[in-house]
Amino acid sequence: MRFLRTLLVFVTVAVAGMALLPEALAYVSAGKDPATAYAPLETPSAKTFDVVARRFSFEPATIEVTQGDRVRLRVTSVDGVHGLGIRKFKVNTLVPRGGRAVTIEFTATEAGTFPIVCSEACGDGHADMRGSLVVAAASK
Ligand code: CUA
């Protein structure tokens, strides 16, 4: 009897653990580290942009794509640490100092103009360090 009860508890825990697994994986892939979260997803057909982050701007400040595009941003800081965030597409990536490029990939699923922000405190002009992602509606 006691064995059965122990077994039942074990099975219950195992089933609950498996139910939580997809959520745990989703959490990991939504994490901040682009090297691990995004690199394996690199798509050959992605529209690629090289973006330079500096105090206190992104260059280019405006990135234009079309709805449905897979978008890849290769972001490099020419000074200190910055971040690149596009809330709409759950992008939030640290851009390290030292010129190492970080790669961000996402799919522009919705048309519109979305703010690109610096998501890491980087000095007096941090709040002004902004850009725009312009997603044109797909033609039908
Ligand atoms: Cu760059 Cu905050």
> What is the terminal-to-terminal distance?
66 Å
Which segments are poorly predicted (pLDDT under 50) over 5 or more consecutive residues? 7-37
Give the helix/strand class.
Answer: alpha/beta
Q: For the largest sheet, list the strands in their spatial order.
A: 2-1-4-7
List keywords for this structure.
23% helix; Immunoglobulin-like; alpha/beta; 4-stranded mixed β-sheet; 140 residues; binds dinuclear copper ion; 2 domains
Describe the structure.
The protein is α/β, with parallel strands linked by helices and 140 residues long. The chain has two domains: 1-30; 34-136, Sandwich (Immunoglobulin-like), CATH 2.60.40.420. It contains two helices and nine strands; from the N terminus they run ααβββββββββ. The strands form three sheets. A four-stranded mixed beta sheet has the order 2-1-4-7, with no helix packed on it. Strands 3-9-8 form a three-stranded mixed beta sheet, with no helix packed on it. A two-stranded antiparallel sheet has the order 5-6. Strand 1 (47-54) and strand 2 (57-59) form a beta hairpin. The longest helix is centred in the N-terminal third of the chain and has 28 residues, at 2-29. Bound molecules: dinuclear copper ion. Dinuclear copper ion binds at residues 82, 118, 120-122, 126, 129. Dinuclear copper ion (CUA) binds at residues 82, 118, 120-122, 126, 129.
